[in-house]
Amino acid sequence: MTIGFVAELLDDFLFLALGAVIYSYTRQWFGRPRDRRVRQLVNGLAFGTVAVLMMAQGIPTAEGLLIDARNVPVALIGLFDGWPAGLLAGSMAALFRLWLGGPGAVPGVIG
After folding, report:
1. Mind listing the pLDDT tens digit for each residue in 6-16?
2. Residue 105: is it exposed, middle or buried by C-beta count within 10 angstroms (0-12/13-18/19+)?
3. pLDDT tens, residue by residue, 62-101
4. How many CA atoms lie within 13 A of 96 on its CB side?
5. CA dihedral in degrees (15, 76, 36, 42; nearest 10)?
């Protein structure tokens, strides 16, 4: 393991920690049952942004390939806040992947 690899993993961990902080605040701000949809919208946008940041940064491997961990924040928000927030976060990551293009864009979106 190189120092760059560890630094990239630390960056991804910090992005996820930022998402967890945002999630805890939105639980306080939109804690009433009638505010649930607003909370899902805000959390979906926040975790979608985290997924896009993690995808844009990537984790370099020894062979020069990039591993992106976009599924982690999408899965977390889908688990904690329900399918609407997960769908929004996943859609943001999918649209960013399509915008990047390349030979693996369509399989990346499907995956």
Report:
1. 676 777 777 78
2. middle
3. 676 767 777 888 888 899 888 999 999 999 988 988 888 7
4. 18
5. 30
